[in-house]
Amino acid sequence: MKKAAIVGGTGYGAVELVRLLQSHPKIEIRKIISHSQYGNSIAEAYPHLSHVFEVTMEEWNAEELKNEIDIVFFAAPAGVAKELIPELQDSPIQCVDLSGDLRLKSAEDYEAWYGIKAAPNATLQQAVYGLTEVFKEDIKHAKIISNPGCFPTAALLGTVPAIVHNLIQPYPIIIDGKTGVSGAGRKQSAMTHFSETNENVTAYKVGHHQHIPEIDQYLSQAGNQPITTVFTTHLVPMTRGLVCTIYGSLNRNADTAEIISLYRNFYEGHPFVRIRDEGHFPTTKEVYGSNFCDIGIHADARTNQLIIVSAIDNLVKGAAGQAIQNVNVMNGWDESLGLEDFPVYP
Amino acid sequence: MKKAAIVGGTGYGAVELVRLLQSHPKIEIRKIISHSQYGNSIAEAYPHLSHVFEVTMEEWNAEELKNEIDIVFFAAPAGVAKELIPELQDSPIQCVDLSGDLRLKSAEDYEAWYGIKAAPNATLQQAVYGLTEVFKEDIKHAKIISNPGCFPTAALLGTVPAIVHNLIQPYPIIIDGKTGVSGAGRKQSAMTHFSETNENVTAYKVGHHQHIPEIDQYLSQAGNQPITTVFTTHLVPMTRGLVCTIYGSLNRNADTAEIISLYRNFYEGHPFVRIRDEGHFPTTKEVYGSNFCDIGIHADARTNQLIIVSAIDNLVKGAAGQAIQNVNVMNGWDESLGLEDFPVYP
Amino acid sequence: MKKAAIVGGTGYGAVELVRLLQSHPKIEIRKIISHSQYGNSIAEAYPHLSHVFEVTMEEWNAEELKNEIDIVFFAAPAGVAKELIPELQDSPIQCVDLSGDLRLKSAEDYEAWYGIKAAPNATLQQAVYGLTEVFKEDIKHAKIISNPGCFPTAALLGTVPAIVHNLIQPYPIIIDGKTGVSGAGRKQSAMTHFSETNENVTAYKVGHHQHIPEIDQYLSQAGNQPITTVFTTHLVPMTRGLVCTIYGSLNRNADTAEIISLYRNFYEGHPFVRIRDEGHFPTTKEVYGSNFCDIGIHADARTNQLIIVSAIDNLVKGAAGQAIQNVNVMNGWDESLGLEDFPVYP
Amino acid sequence: MKKAAIVGGTGYGAVELVRLLQSHPKIEIRKIISHSQYGNSIAEAYPHLSHVFEVTMEEWNAEELKNEIDIVFFAAPAGVAKELIPELQDSPIQCVDLSGDLRLKSAEDYEAWYGIKAAPNATLQQAVYGLTEVFKEDIKHAKIISNPGCFPTAALLGTVPAIVHNLIQPYPIIIDGKTGVSGAGRKQSAMTHFSETNENVTAYKVGHHQHIPEIDQYLSQAGNQPITTVFTTHLVPMTRGLVCTIYGSLNRNADTAEIISLYRNFYEGHPFVRIRDEGHFPTTKEVYGSNFCDIGIHADARTNQLIIVSAIDNLVKGAAGQAIQNVNVMNGWDESLGLEDFPVYP
């Protein structure tokens, strides 16, 4: 068994890691680290864990981790992992960062979009972007994983095959995202206040979402050409789930069946991407609680547009689940290990 | 007082008309007509009306209507008004159809998208499209109003000024719609079953929504050029409210402030369209229960795209409210009459 | 027109007063007072009011109010009105307090349940409890109204007739309350965080809710005997609406029809209490946005229990609507004035 | 591996069995039986199962089952299992009925509350009520299990220890239940229509719920005295989760800490019942997707009432999970087998 620590113990990413790792056959959780609540049991903050996972949270201590731990999951807000990961860099510990700290290769980009100082360049360059299905070969040899953002996961899995196969023009690609509220974490804010979010759809950070440069960087990398997407996010009144609706102008006459076939080939051997049959589109509930990314495809002859609908659970494939999937790959295990649970439906 | 009848008394459009007309100073409801439940009180079907509006529903009777009624609102499903309106055509009764029966000028288009036989051509040609803010001059002289669909209302009010002012290219215009469930009416279906719709976002009728040709027809008419939009709809887990996020490629360098100013000028004198200040975007909750269409605008310099967010209450501005607004205009009254209520918030 | 001021301008009680008073024929809003945000427009805090009610909020100034205002609504959290109302006591201004500050006649009780110092005794004694249907005669002559809490409104309107008619034993009366989240106001807290409140039912303040002594005090007063109820509250995942399910042991053989008849007689002349027919029970949605309190009754022969279901909109009959109803009564107007709107359904 | 069949393949109980059994180490699903959709894949009806569980549903065939199957789960509506189980009675197949067909020992009671003819008396008498924590000894030797209803599970687990320990009087015991909508199954109805159920709380079947005689029968049996409870159910706008709030008059001075201790002793060795610490109450979200029944306790000195809050996931501990727990016990396995997953939170 590999020994894991989770940093950021009071956040939703951490408790989702706890839920998923509990049945993982090769990883056991040994430490929960929380800067704000060390000394308390995680079950005080999360009573759903009472009686079954009453671990006392600890302070960050790099030396202890080096002696006792094989894998560290960083599930803290942006700004934390970039400070802590360098403290582990001279050890063989595998690090997976679920925040955005290591996603942008350019320090200036990070500073412009996140508004805080970037990670040291050495750390930035060493980190491998953990979009498992697209960058699996790199992930196999990685020691530091930058786990993708929730929106970029759905957006890229939906768009990369179309770009790689030169199906659509590089501009304009429109990505319209809709997400449940848990993506905003447990921190209270006006935008997560029930009475205002319920019965409401809210466009937010229009033109300014920090996932924009992440999508562009890795779509460009996968497509081997510079691509600038148009990406807008909306908050919808549900807890979990995220869908991206993607629009691109078709380069050539291609019908839906052909494109579905191309996508299925692209994702062959990757059990978590499921391409729906023609005429069927995934809903977020159909992936709830699971690591799947479900994709529906429509080539619209009337308008010559390719329309892709890509759905994930933002806390699983968009965070904790993909983090575990990447650790599986890094360790040479089956990428599905511990992630085989079916979606919770209804 | 003008005397009104409402056809389709057991649907959501009808009860919303009842709610709004109750305080209208120049219209009184005299008849509720229901094919399926005549003989029963509307308050049996809708207990929220008990003690305050216990009207017995009646069968359709064209002769009676001609003798007793000035205005007929058709709030029945598609396929009903096209059969009944011709029965009233030799009378001075003002007709407003809230269904899609009279929205497409081409009978073939109607039959292709709705799958049933179209209205008589004379009726189709006589009907005036009731997007009040855009076609007000025609509405003044109309006898038959084809009230816009909920999505086309938000889509067109958000797009028409950009087209009229030649701000964006005619292709591709992407319109991504998100709607609450009440738009599907009271009829039960798998897609309106609570356990499946709650905590879910569902793309539906992708490439096949009957509002597509309606948007294209009237955007082309307003813009005086043929326009083919890309329009996709999503069901979100709320009852009321609808938002369209609209993307178009800017024709020229235009900043957000300039475009906001153009939109405000375009809608001057139209109290129900409210253009938000720069950096602010409307949410559906901010128009809940009211006749407003709120619009937010962002000219995205990075991608050269114009992004418009347009929000309405689908049952008010998207149905019953706009129907009343049109009747106000037809009768030479202030277009706000009976529609001044503020949104219900939160 | 009477001139009104609203204190606590950034809370839900205040914006609901704004919505309801907008169409009141005898009251106009002249001032919105906010301690935390004076100088800003209320429409900045509440964009649904933009373009239609862009009033700049002001600081509290008792002298100005005495010169310019006839009615002051206090819609601030507990602890505010008890400090401010005494400053107006030498003026003819009518005061309505929507908080709990003046509801408990005993200062010790207030201090025990609210945890802060009580209002001056003179103010406490002068305040009349504004449960309109029960204490209307006193309200007619009041100058200070203590507006009932949301739960006590539904609980008392459901229970008082049974007590007055000696239908049930005074112990144990069980009142099981379920409320939407807006009752907690706009202030953010763990319990109003969307991701935790959605898809959840939470029992809260079990045995400690500050509405317990309020219910007991006024049920005892109406029933002319000391009554101690058992009252438990639950948060349910909706914004508006509140229902109390009330259980009492029948004193004698009484069937449902007889009790319905007694209740209807009790509330005769009070248009906002609607007693459902036998076999029918109200839902919160059937009173949404309106001032109604709907009541369903079942005398359970099998268990000898009277079961009452009482539903209100917590922000209308449970707050702003009842406040206006009380002002109507205080001024000798029809108690329905400005409150005739039908519920918003669905 | 034991081989299982599931009858009623298109219902929520069946798909929840599929989800939970997928990781059970000693049971494999060999047949899904559906009367209405045999011949189709279950993944057509439930796309969340696509690619991972594409089993073709079959017709009921008792002879085949006898040859191939060890365990049959009946997850069909009331009226089905009572007809089919007798066909298997001469075989060693273990039967678990999730419907109410075998819960009432008296055929007259069944016919009065369910409105259809009861099961043969031999079947009724052979069936053992599967409230695992209370009737475990009987379950060990059972061949036919009548799996408890969702409400009775939460109600009985919350009430039985208080009755067994003579803490509360047998009358009146008030049980106020609140449930999510999935308890009503996948069949469409007015009460499960999203637009009417969302933002709504509805009391239903007041005095007439078929779970009433079930609660009374087994509470009487556990308590060894005739007990008649008062039980009312409410629908709340969420998909999963159910809570019962239980009120009983204390027989003696007992403080909360003492009662918590009694409850913990009562459920010792039963890992799925978790008793919260004093001052803490469970929420439905804290058991979401899991087999836990969480219980909070308050002895209210002011009113001499014992207040119990008992929460389950209606589809797991209230249906499929408890069914598996019972099969575990019948086969001499650890009762937690395959049910160890933590709740899904948030």
Summarize the structure in words.
Chains A, B, C, D: Pfam families: Semialdhyde_dh (PF01118), Semialdhyde_dhC_1 (PF22698). Chains A, B, C, D: Its main location: cytoplasm. Chain A is built from twelve helices and 13 strands. Chain A has 346 residues and is of the alpha/beta class. The first copy, chain A, has two domains: 2-126, Rossmann fold (3-Layer(aba) Sandwich), CATH 3.40.50; 151-314, Dihydrodipicolinate Reductase, domain 2 (2-Layer Sandwich), CATH 3.30.360. In chain A, strands 8-9-7-10-13-12-11 form a seven-stranded mixed sheet. In chain A, strand 3 (71-74), helix 4 and strand 4 form a beta-alpha-beta unit. In chain A, helix 1 crosses helix 12 (316-330), helix 7 (132-140) packs parallel to helix 12 and helix 8 (150-164) runs parallel beside helix 10. Chain A is globular. The model of chain A has no long low-confidence stretch (mean pLDDT 97). Chains in contact: A-B, A-C, A-D, B-C, B-D, C-D.
Question: What descriptors fit this protein?
Answer:
homotetramer; 346 residues; Rossmann fold; Dihydrodipicolinate Reductase, domain 2; seven-stranded mixed beta sheet; 13 strands; globular
